[in-house]
Amino acid sequence: MGPPDAERKKELRSFCRSAGIRFKSLELLNLSLTHRSVTNESKALSRAGPLRANNERLEFLGDAVLGAIAVSLLYQRFPEKNEGELAKIKSVVVSEEILSGMALELRLDTALLLGKGEEQTGGRTKRAILADALEALIGALYLDSGFRAVRDFAAPRINPEIDRVLDKKAAQDNKSRLQELSQRLYKAYPVYRLVKRTGPEHERLFWVEVTVNGTSYGPCTGRNKKAAEQEAARLALEGL
Prior knowledge:
- The protein is mainly α.
- The chain has 2 domains: 6-172, Ribonuclease iii, N-terminal Endonuclease Domain, Chain A (Orthogonal Bundle), CATH 1.10.1520; 174-239, Double Stranded RNA Binding Domain.
- It has 12 helices and 5 strands.
- It is elongated, with a radius of gyration of 25 Å.
């Protein structure tokens, strides 16, 4: 695969400006944005067979670099969490769903080079392709500018995702946290009571209150009984 032409270089510089990154080597950046479908269709040959001028090797590198950054952030931010807890958070933060979302925010989809077949089947919107391309971009940035540049680029994007994971986990664990607290303080379990149901079948609301050591909290609402119980537990935790 040859160097990018003048028009492509213009596109790459525009992408760098919008994404807030700098590359000394536009060839390396271009390689990171080249999906294997391009080289599969080109049938370019070398002495060893078909050329592999695509982003797969950079993706392999970027996956490791991104993982190291995510782990270092988690290690520094949460000294009280054990290895298992940190691993669970990391697995979500660097998941295909999260990375593809980051890629779209960077408008990486507009800079991708795809083969005609992949283009016609909606390759620019496929999560796997977007997530892989982001990892390849990170691998290329690491080779181009070093670990610190990658960390400066990735950390501001990873930290908010870590916060979202923790917020979601806290919301899902309200009932467990309330049960633990109630047992520790009062040697008793919280008691949940369905107060009422309102609204038509397709827009039903459930109203639930929870009683802890004689004090009731709520009622709180949810689209189902479990959601209402979680909300009531959250209110009780705030009160306690």
